[in-house]
Specification:
The chain is built from five helices and 13 strands. With 282 residues, the protein is an alpha/beta fold. The protein folds into three domains: 28-63; 67-136, membrane protein fhac (Ubiquitin-like (UB roll), Roll), CATH 3.10.20; 141-281, Cell division protein FtsQ/DivIB (Rossmann fold, 3-Layer(aba) Sandwich), CATH 3.40.50.
């Protein structure tokens, strides 16, 4: 009776060994099943993305040919009628173009190549309108540098002067042909012009005849209403302006303004006035 349990134990051991031997194949099957499930899900996701992309392309192609967003009206603001026609020609926009197909960055670059255009802002107004807001260059002076060129209030030379065009602007002389020197001189000139824009009377921009600019930064100002040349360093004019106005007012009141040859502002305190008879007063 005691020997029978031994046999049952040996049978149980054999079954346990068989179960243990089945584990590797069971694990492989589980891994294979997981990989298959992942591959299936990924394939479904990829197929879904492809279908969405194809649907988007189909809709986009239909929109490009749709009459509901066709470009029918172009509004150009900020320029006169003659320049408006020129800008429309430069834009190369076709009447049957879809508003969706208009690339604003490319169009902006094309229009801003015009020498009289400083900047352009574009706006699409669906379904049929494109708005072009152009800022036209405004000459502030004429730079003599071999030829004559218009310069704006920021010191940028933007166009050669047509001899038949309007030329009632102050002249800028002494500008160097060297790039770095020229840039500095133009910036000093622009600073002077902006200071004089805020003035009235004999020292206003309207009365300025010529600005002569040296490489060193020395600037000479010639005004229509003053017989004297005013000398100063480029950045000094703004801080010296009130002193200069008081000095000119004093010279006019004392009747000596017509005798003045030069007013030199290159001094920390006050100015030096040179007279035509070689007299100097500081």
């Amino acid at each position: 009776m005691k020997k029978k349990p031994k046999k049952s134990r040996s049978v149980l051991k054999k079954q346990a060994i068989k179960k243990r031997k089945r584990k590797p194949s069971s694990n492989r099957w589980r891994v294979t099943r997981l990989l298959f499930s992942f591959s299936l899900k990924f394939s479904c996701l990829l197929a879904g993305l492809v279908l969405i992309s194809l649907l988007f392309l189909y809709l986009y192609e239909n929109l490009l040919t749709s009459p509901y967003i066709r470009l029918e009206r172009v509004i150009v603001r900020g320029v006169d009628e003659k320049l408006r026609h020129t800008l429309l020609k430069m834009s190369e926009l076709k009447p049957d173009t879809s508003l969706l197909a208009v690339h604003l960055d490319e169009l902006k670059q094309r229009i801003e190549k015009h020498p009289w255009i400083r900047s352009v802002n574009l706006e699409k107004r669906f379904p049929h309108t494109l708005v072009i807001k152009a800022e036209k260059e405004k000459p502030c002076a004429i730079v003599i540098m071999g030829n004559m060129h218009y310069m704006n209030r920021w010191g940028k030379i933007f166009r050669r002067v047509d001899m038949t065009a309007h030329m009632d602007f102050p002249l800028v002389t002494g500008i160097s042909k060297n790039g770095s020197d020229r840039e500095k001189q133009l910036q000093w000139t622009a600073h002077v012009l902006r200071v004089l824009e805020a003035e009235n009377g004999s020292l206003s921009l309207a009365q300025l005849s010529e600005i002569h600019v040296e490489k060193s930064g020395q600037i000479s100002l010639y005004f229509l209403s003053l017989p004297a040349v005013i000398e100063l360093e480029g950045p000094q004019l703004e801080e010296k302006m009130e002193d200069l106005k008081r000095l000119v007012k004093h010279l006019k009141r004392t009747g000596r303004i017509q005798m003045v040859k030069r007013i030199n502002l290159n001094y920390r305190e006050g100015a030096v006035v040179s007279y035509k008879n070689d007299g100097v007063v500081s």
